[in-house]
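[Meeting: bench + compute handoff]

Bench side (C.D.) handed over the final construct sequence. Compute side (W.E.) agreed to return the predicted structure before the next meeting so the bench team could plan truncations. Sequence as handed over:
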Amino acid sequence: MLISACLLGARVRYHGGAAEVEHPALRRWAGEGRLVPVCPEVEGGLPTPRPPAEIQRGRGGPGPLRVETIDGRDVSSAYARGAQAAVDQARRLGIRVAILKDGSPSCGSSTVSDGTFSGTRVAGQGVTAMALGAAGVRVFSERQIDAAVEWLARLEAAG
């Protein structure tokens, strides 16, 4: 399964840190070689550290989401490249489950920042989470690992 690299301790977040999560299922899956770490922002060509970026709502009309850094630089294409790299990897490896860092403009599965750089979260998905979902990958956040365990067990039982 795909997993945000920062959740495994990789220091790839925008501020150069990680968001490591401890969970027995993650340890088991790592031991079984089932975890495929991914950082769509790095895969898309962004450095670490990098300026904070947020999805800008209501800007640019319909179409692809616009992602801007706090200083107003449009980094949408890097986010789109990273999302496509994650989708390509999932397809190549037959991955149907992902555990991604919620709140991220790439990986957020249930919340993202509101685009004002104020720390306010709103319901929504990041660029990669949306792309993976559209490709048939079930996306869970780091707070939903138990649900991912249950979903994966049902998936495997169904064959």
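W.E. noted at the follow-up: The chain is about 35% helix and 20% strand. C.D. will use this when planning the next construct.
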